[in-house]
Amino acid sequence: MSTSPAAPASPTERELNEFRSRFPILARRNYLNSCSLGALSHDAEARLDDFRELWHTMGASAWYEHWLGRLDELRAKAGAIHGAATEETAILPSTSAALSVVADAVPTAGRNRVVCSELDFPTLAYQWRVKPEIELVVVPSDDGIGVSLDRFEEAVDERTLFVATSHVCYSTGYVQDVAGIGEIARRAGAWSIIDGYQAAGQIAVDVEALGVDVYTSGPLKWLCGGPGLAWLFVRADRIAEMKPRFTSWFAARDQFDFRLDAFEFRDDARRFELGTPALPTVHTALGGIEALESFGLDRVQARIRALTARLVEGCREAGFSLRTHPDPERRSGIVMIAHDDPAEAVRRLDARDIVVDHRPGHVRVSPHAYNTEAEVDEVVAALAGMYT
Q1: Which of 10, 308, 340, 344 shows its CA 20 to 30 Å from the CA of 181?
Q2: What per-residue confidence (pLDDT) applies to 18?
Q3: Are 275 and 92 in contact (CB under 8 A)?
Q4: Closest by alpha carbon to 166, among 332, 341, 9?
Q5: Does residue 187 share a domain with residue 115?
Q6: Does a structural domain hold residue 254?
Q7: What residues contact 311, with CB distance under 8 A and at least 6 apart?
């Protein structure tokens, strides 16, 4: 008889304080905006210092002795976090770049329909909105929080080339049934593309178990690695089918041959890479991952769930209207609190050293594992005080 894995042990006060001490902003401010930008850690700074020192002392020769190895290290780390093999992992400048490469690399087989949802970040839809040959179908949300599988099922047919949607909806925190979406696409002969930028680090991601064809992610948010990079994961048995028309010397089988008379793609996912990556972010991304690994990724995710539940309960007790799903299994660490003037609320909270964000009609709060229960309670009390 199978059993569910045991929940990770809660951190002791000492363990939590040690983890928090890695993130200097927490000594100055109540930082609850990790879904926009994860906090910078000493670990990331140390990696960046190493990069800077090698640049000072070795210059370009550091590429061969160190920096190419850092790229390999990051591909392996990112792949492991997402349940993908290193050979299925590519480093790109952004999710927009990753989607552009994929959109132009897949054989259309006479299909021209792309299915997104109205709750997706605009980047997903923009890739195809600008292509007049593509019929873009935007699936509606019935409740403004999530999109049912039935809606995807209705929209996907034999004309569909891609089902492209989010793992976690940026404006509601809703966790989609990605495995179910992938199955709908597969039955119709379509490709599934999942934007997981808001997922990685805060919920468990296993792209192999999810059964999707393409998954994008990156270090900017919950993985605390900073801006300037994205990861593209492509299922191993799909790679050979894809022939990118946006390419670079990093995608070449013999990268350092520098031939102009011929071009052959790499056999692995690096065929999708677009030139020299942002090495500073390569280093901070590695440091961000190390900071989270010091605490334990499973404990990071468990603590985000617990703090989110506390935040939701506190908001409801305060009488706030929330745009969040009632099922905790469909919630992530993004909590949308209705407000008549969210921009002003965020400004006033900032003046009190509480850092959150806003989206239309809502204050957006996103605790991370490095936050405390007291910090979650403080933002609720501060918002409540604005109404009295």
Answers
A1: 308
A2: 97
A3: no
A4: 332
A5: yes
A6: yes
A7: 335, 365, 367, 376, 379, 380
